[in-house]
Amino acid sequence: MSTVNIEGGSALSNGTTDHESSSTSTSLQLKHNMKSLVVKYWILLMNAALSAIGYVGGPLLLRLYFIYGGKRKWIPALLVTAGFPVLLIPISINYHFHRRNPLGSSAGKFFISWKLLLTATAIGLLNGIDNFMYAIGLSFLPVSTSSIVYSTYLIFIAFFALLIIRQSFTPYSVNSVVLMTLGSILLGIRQNGDRPPGVSGGQYLLGFLMTIGAAALLGLINPCTELAFTKAAKNITYSSVLQFQFFNGLIASLFCIVGMIINKDFAAMSREATEFGLGESKYYAVLVIAAVVCQMSFLGSVGMVFCSSALASGVFGAMLLPLGTVGGAIVYHEKFSGEKGISLAMCLWGFASYFYGSYRDTKKQITDSQICI
């Protein structure tokens, strides 16, 4: 029979009251939530770093292929996702720790479900198409202009996120989208004079339209990825994200490999390597390094969708792409006009606005959790 405590709570067998037990449980839950939040932000920071390297370095390396004599379109399209085998390293490490963890679930539950695998396959096909369109655009446009046009994918992400996943917008996120969109449009002003040598007006227009199309397709892919993660919320972990990304990259790469076979690109690679402006060995070095760097942006983007949202990933990527404009001006001596400088400032301002709004929302959530205690 339980005794009644003076404070009104019944005493438990270990001497604590039910109120104390409830308070302890709530406190432990809060600590667990805080720990999960810290881990989540560290993963988010890691993926942001990967995105930064990939978004800035990837276009520069792919453009290097075209500048020094590369003429194929399927080869750079393949490079965007060809680095997917490196994901086997972190997947294997995670699987090793999963097997050694006696408190973990069965080993079979480590792998993603068939439903998520099929979704990764479908999105991989879309990524393959997107990569090919982007490669065509980059073959006819300078890095600075290509980055400008491609950063408009933020508009499409905002549209599809609202349509597909009912993304909620705050004044900060709206301000961010508007600023970064205006910045991208401003960068497109008076860019007719930056047409690369040997590129006709028709090719330049084709490159512009293909890049816009690739931006629109990417704007669809990111919200679809977030929707897939949301549907699998009970079983999704970062290991699942790595597996999802592996199959995503595998399917996109297979799509591009089929295109290379049809276009006889494999047979032409040896001849193209001997004619490459930097030399045959550096030709293959450029391809390998570009594949690894592009995979960083690919993995980082999906990781940010997992940790935050498709819109957050889009805002961060759109902020990074104008840095490619600066990189193109420095590395390839492309024009850096006053419009590009103003646009870069607007994109950074827009990113700061979104980041501050996200910080306020997170702080409010933590405060509300503490009040509930």
From TrEMBL:
GO terms for molecular function: purine nucleobase transmembrane transporter activity; purine nucleoside transmembrane transporter activity. Belongs to the purine permeases (TC 2.A.7.14) family. It is a multi-pass membrane protein. Residues 1-16 have a biased composition (Polar residues). GO terms for cellular component: membrane. It is found in: Membrane. Residues 1-27 are annotated as: Disordered. It holds the Pfam family PUNUT. The chain crosses the membrane at residues 41-62, 74-97, 117-141, 148-166, 172-189, 201-221, 241-262, 283-306, 312-332, 341-359. This is Probable purine permease. Keywords: Membrane, Transmembrane, Transmembrane helix, Transport. Its main location: membrane.
